[in-house]
Amino acid sequence: MMGPKQVAQASLFYRFSVEDHVPKDHLLRRLDRFVDLSDIRRFLAPFYSPTGRPSIDPELMIRMLIVGYCFGIRSERRLCDEVHLNLAYRWFCRLDLTDPVPDHSTFSKNRHGRFRDCDLFRHLFEQVLARCIAEGLVGGDSFGVDASLIPPTPAASRSSPRSGRRRRSHAPPRSISTPSTTRPSAPRRRSSRRRCRRRTPPRGSPRRTATGRSTPTRPTIWSTSSMR
Questions:
Q1: What is the 3-state secondary structure (H, E, C) of the chain?
Q2: 41-57 per-position pLDDT tens digit
Q3: Looking at the 3D structure of the chain, how many domains does it have?
Q4: Residue 61 maps to a domain
Q5: Is residue 149 part of a domain?
Q6: Does pTM top 0.70 for this prediction?
Q7: Is residue 126 part of a domain?
């Protein structure tokens, strides 16, 4: 028997809990046990005015930034959209189903303004480091640096495993010849205007037409009437 068609009907009352919709093995659940941001409000108190419009909770913005760092969300606009849609992100940020999400411009104003002036991120990093030392994860006595040495010039020829072709090396030549001490001669300059002289052929010489053929000139005939 086919059931009735599903139609979205708005109910007058809802009974909904974000806590029930977040899996028990979710990454944010395991991370939330170690995140302690109770000291942020006391640290940022001197940087807020005692009067004026109430600001957004700084702990909420830090939790949203942690979500972006953990899940590779670099864009602030996309981060606000993801927190608005994802129930697990809302649960981690202490937002209910109907609570509004801060605007993306709020992060820019606080990151480049108040958070940078008070050096909040360094304070949080030192707290996390002290917590790791207390738990025995970090000794705090020595540190190690992982680095790799890269030669200044590539090899003379490289072969790619996919195509099997050799690549041309862009390394400079081993020996560079010294330039000669003689000063090179300056090139001759040619005038942009060419002087065209019209040469008139002498009398009696053949003339050339536009087609290149030469036509003999007609000799002058003197009549006896004109000589008289």
A1: CCCCCCCCCCCCCCCCCHHHHCCCCCHHHHHHCCCCCCCHHHHHHHHCCCCCCCCCCHHHHHHHHHHHHHHCCCCHHHHHHHHHHCHHHHHHCCCCCCCCCCCHHHHHHHHHHHHHHCCHHHHHHHHHHHHHHHHCCCCCCCCCCCCCCCCCCCCCEEECCCCCCEEECCCCCCCCCCCCCCCCCCCCCCCCCCCCCCCCCCCCCCEECCCCCEECCCCCCCCHHHHC
A2: 888 888 888 888 888 88
A3: 1
A4: yes
A5: no
A6: no
A7: yes
